[in-house]
Amino acid sequence: MSSYTFETLLVDISASGVAHVEINRPKNLNAFSHQTWQDIGRCFAQFKSDGNVRCIVLSAAGRMFTAGLDLKDAMKRAAERQKEDGSRDVARKGYYQRLYLLEFQDALTQVETCDKPVISVVHGACIGIGVDLNVACDIRIASEDAYYCVKEVDIGMAADIGTLQRLPKVVGNDSWVRDICYTARNVPAKEAQAFGLVSNVYKTKDESMKAAFELAETIASKSPVAVVSTKHLLNYSRDHTVQEGLEYTALWNALAHNSKDMGVAMMASLQKQKATFPKL
């Protein structure tokens, strides 16, 4: 079994191929430090090429999912970057700030581009970067005490790690997206569900986790070739025209149809038995 050790994450992989990633900074309310987002990026990049992993559940320890950006850590990093900037002019300072932001963005994009489906479970607050992270996931589940907040305007900036790009595509309601992004108001789980940000809301975190793992086990039981192909093609088709999506799917499946999984699945169906598929 593959080894995953990170400073701010706990990772466990079951025999069935369900990985559980838990953000583990409860004393800091799971606020995202520089180390946290680096750990997220490295973890999900590793999952992409790990055949033992078929589906991922993402949750957080302690009182809440995340309080957002760790402002103390961010201010410390900003001071370090200012020192490094030294006598650089505005253009040069901006050049390196852009590289820093791109690195930050790329870390969370690893969740979206990891071909294994990711199910997030939110309890309590999910603020700022927590929303950035959640909209990069495939399926979002919440407990009744959960709430979401696109907080960035309250700290004098526009969200820049993915919310403004992914949230409109996730919910398909531009008016509501602008409402919550302009106001930085708290969005309770039931409202998030009504507008399509969340697929299911459960009474407690424990119930939410139970539902997430049951769903993950179901996904993990399917052909891994079929599942990773489906996620990859859904992401591609979302960002391209219908015709482009169809043409790309034909090209992708010209290869993917050569897997043994299709024969295994068809035979199991004919015999009314449960199919068992090899790892990816």
From TrEMBL:
Pfam families: ECH_1. It comes from the Eukaryota. The keyword Lipid metabolism applies. Coiled coil: none annotated. Its main location: other. InterPro entries: ClpP/crotonase-like_dom_sf (IPR029045), Ech1-like (IPR045002), Enoyl-CoA_hydra/iso (IPR001753), Enoyl-CoA_hydra_C (IPR014748). The keyword Membrane does not apply. Belongs to the enoyl-CoA hydratase/isomerase family. One of its GO terms (molecular function) is delta(3,5)-delta(2,4)-dienoyl-CoA isomerase activity. Keywords: Acetylation, Fatty acid metabolism, Isomerase, Lipid metabolism, Peroxisome. One of its GO terms (biological process) is fatty acid beta-oxidation. It comes from Linderina pennispora. Pathway: Lipid metabolism; fatty acid beta-oxidation. It is found in: Peroxisome. GO terms for cellular component: mitochondrion; peroxisome. SUPFAM superfamilies: ClpP/crotonase. This is ClpP/crotonase.
